[in-house]
Specification:
198 residues; mainly beta; SH3 type barrels; 8-stranded antiparallel β-barrel; 5-stranded antiparallel sheet; 15 strands; globular
Length: 198
Amino acid sequence: MMRFLAVGVLSLCAGASAFAGSAGLHSGKYEGLMLAVTPEHQVEGFYAEEMGEGVTRGCAFYLQGKPAALTTWLDAAYPGSVAPSADGVTLTVEQGREHPGCLSVLMPEIATGLDLTQTAAKPWIGLVTVSADKAYLLKTPGAKAAKRSYIVKRDVVGVLAFKDGWAQVEFINADDRAFTGWISQDQYSRLAAPAAPH
């Protein structure tokens, strides 16, 4: 009898550790990384960092997939991973500095594990990129856009909910102020990772 119990406990532990990868990850801002944990326990992210004053240099790329086997991309795709750490996450992309603009901005540690501290917890279930030139953040789906805040093409925003062809999104500006509202599905694009590199 004891032998059967031991086998049961071992199989429970194996199942728990397989799930721990996304279970320990939480949606939010981690310094330059926006990270969303989807209902399917995948992750979607956008990393953006700038250096310099006046003339700035920038590094930005998207990431998506299972936490332990992500695809990161902007022009080209490179494999990566994200894991929970004591005060945030560790992002690893061996070829991360090969993303456009990242060589002079991104720390070399990205290749072996860059620790990012959580700066804000968020209830995001995904990320989308604004595809419209201007998208007003509406109070409710289909509401009037009068005197509302708006977001512009290529902004990346966190998704709080999807409903009937609309997304309730949250935009965080450069001053870390958050703005929420609804945008229609013809105003945004879901993240779509290219085929994973071999």
